Amino acid sequence: LAAPLISRAAQDTGEGVTFAGGERPLVQFPGKRKLILVHSRPPHLETPFNTFNESVITANDAFYVRYHLANFPTTIDLAEYRLNITGAVKKPLSLSLDELKSIVEQVELVAVNQCSGNSRGYSSPRVFGAQLSNGAMGNARWTGVSLKAVLEKAGVLSDAKQVVFNGLDKPVLPTTPDFHKTLDIEHALSPEPMLAWAMNGEDLPFLNGYPLKLIVPGYFGTYWVKHLSDIVVLDHAYEGHDAFFMSKAYHLPDNDCMCVAPGTAADKTRPISSLPVRSFITSVMAGDQLPVNRSVELKGIAFDSGEGLKSVDVSVDGGQTWKATTLSESLGRFSFREWKLDTTFRQKGNAVLMVRAGNNKGEVQPVKADWNPGGYRRHAIETTPVTIV
Amino acid sequence: FLATSSQSLAAPNQIKLPPETAKLPVSDLPGYNLATQKCMICHSVDYIQYQPPGMSQAQWTAEVAKMEHSYGASLSKADIKSIGAYLAVVY
Fold this sequence. Notes:
The complex is a heterodimer of chains A (389) and B (91).
Chain A: E1 26-27, E2 35-39, E3 44-46, E4 65-66, E5 75-76, E6 83-87, E7 93-95, H1 97-103, E8 106-114, E9 137-146, H2 147-154, E10 162-167, E11 180-184, H3 185-188, E12 194-199, E13 202-203, E14 213-215, E15 228-234, H4 244-247, E16 251-253, E17 269-271, E18 278-281, E19 289-290, E20 295-303, E21 309-315, E22 323-324, E23 326-327, E24 337-344, E25 349-359, E26 382-388
Parallel strand pairs in A: 6-15, 19-26
Antiparallel strand pairs in A: 1-2, 2-3, 3-4, 6-7, 8-9, 9-12, 10-11, 10-15, 12-13, 12-14, 16-17, 18-20, 20-24, 21-22, 21-25, 23-24, 25-26
Chain B: E1 13-14, H1 30-38, H2 46-49, H3 57-69, H4 77-90
């Protein structure tokens, strides 16, 4: 039988990240349990990392929250809510949520939503932006309809190029760009993207985008527009003031590694897109004490952009040797997948645990983190220092 | 309210956000007053306090300048310099 942890490091809301003005508090927002404050107006809340050890599905009240613009409605009346589909379509649609639910067949999918800036706090050198630890991610079962099926009801014209998504959040001043995201038409008409009204069998939590959210499986959370209200099909590439969050923000260096030498700028950039393969230990936190000469069950999660995980390996000697873990049943290729490994530590003292995932496309997590000016897309092998007692 | 009623008959979904409490550190520097006036218009100032420690004056000044050129904050060149200098001292 696996021994319980002897102690768990005290709850540290920075989880190893430091801040200019001191520690971040735990705060309670509507529909949420106590989460880590990233900022309050508009709300940005991070999930405490030990939550990911509870279940491969992230509870609705624990799921992280991210807004960009502070002028968003705090009351939404479904009697008035409409999803508008306009632009390069044969038949523009303006649908109530009930109409959307009945217009095409309902679908369900488990998928990870990870913030582009998840783990930015570990960037070295540090960069401005939300100083997140590893909790700006979550895995949920989404219920809704396929975006493709809905677009087909509106009848996409043959010259369509891009699709723009907008939600009910707005900038405080008109000089600030609105938060609009785009998908190329091929992606929008692929089987994956969804319009979801339910998360883990319940209405979407308000702060996660009630009543409707764009789900882009395998893509970073920035594309998953909340309080979705407008879908506009364009016969050209989206440009202009409100294209800012596609054309300037959320960009990575436009090269193979999507990285540059630490502290330097990129000559050419492109929008962030899909999730790199990543894995975490969830059953042990940095600083924990583990028992010597007893079997300890190590447990965690791994995920990628939907290519499928090939291997998840663990090292308990700082990366010198690796052991294959056992993967639990898959909830789908876009979901967190649980891994487990029973191990026995034979020596007292310091030990460094590491976990490394690889996928079917041949991507393997790198030992050393690469760097980009936005602090996006961190995916290096995680190391967890522990003490064996 | 009846749990079985159809969604469109349900009461509006309404939330009340907790009050915002973050404040900028008091200082005699001229940038303090300016920042108090300018940096809470679009968002709370915990955006600022939870940035990395030890960013240089040049870095803070560039960050304030970003509020003007990317997000349309109304800040003169002198405002940007003065707020950047204040933030580099207090953080």
